[in-house]
Design brief:
Layout lengths: L13 H34 L4 H4 L4 H9 L10 E11 L4 E12 L3 E6 L5 E4 L2 E4 H8 L4 H9 L5 E6 H11 L2 E5 L3 E4 L3 E4 L2 E5 L1 H14 L1 H19 L8 H9 L3 E2 L3 H16 L3 E4 L3 H6 L1
Parallel strand pairs: 1-6, 3-12
Antiparallel strand pairs: 1-2, 2-3, 4-5, 6-11, 7-10, 8-9
Length: about 290
Amino acid sequence: MKENKLQPIDFRPRKKLRGHPMRRFTIILIAALLIGGSVSVLIFLRNYNYNISGAFGAGRKQEEEETTAPLPYDKVEKLNSQILVFCISKENQKMDFISLFNIKMPESEVSVYSFSPESPIDLNGAQTTVEKAFFEQGISSMRDAVFAATGVTFDKYIYFDETSFRVIADRYGPYSVTVSPALSYKGDFTLILAEGIQNMNGDMLLKYIRALPLTNTLHGYREQTKIIKLILSQAFVPENSDDLISRYSTLANLVETDLTIVEFSGVSPTIQVMMNGSIKYRTAASAEEYING
């Protein structure tokens, strides 16, 4: 008597059972083609020296570290640039301050001079001021106007309004400022400061800069120069020297300037060396002192 063996019950529809082997074969074939195609592409890219690991992010950190490493002093290009920097109040049609920077490398020296935007000048035979020239004729008049006021021809300009100044200053603040003598100003704003060291944010610093020449003209512009130098000294530090191109792009969105990203890229290695080294700051009390050192 034959033994009846129980067969497992298969609940799959017969129609699907008949097509199953073919579908399995098709999937295996497609997978093989995909794998083979991928290997072929990788071999092709490798033959043309394509950086496969870089395409997927591997090694990117090492590449960034290599590009941001500061150059030695003897490898940087020489730099001797005059930069005009000023802050404006669009509402009042006034300049809050105007300064010249002279940046030198390999001397690693930054000179700063702030002057009055309201000093009378002769511009193309007409009596005016640097401030009026800007608001009446625009930035195109500033090269001649600044030369008439100081005897200096600047290479590049950077200017911004009060809102942008506060944002920029707050990035590198707060600031410990020695107020001497005590200051009391009441006008379109009020600022009362006791003599001594005062900690200031961007807003208070701007009010202080504005109030200085309004309370003591000669002393005020000299103190303005020191304040601008203080901002630079807190910005130009090693911890801010990484990824300068990205930092400049952010800054450029807050200011008006004729210093292009391409031009800044060219000098950024030199600026990076300065920021990682020891910068000598010099403040000038007059145009003559600024020019002659």
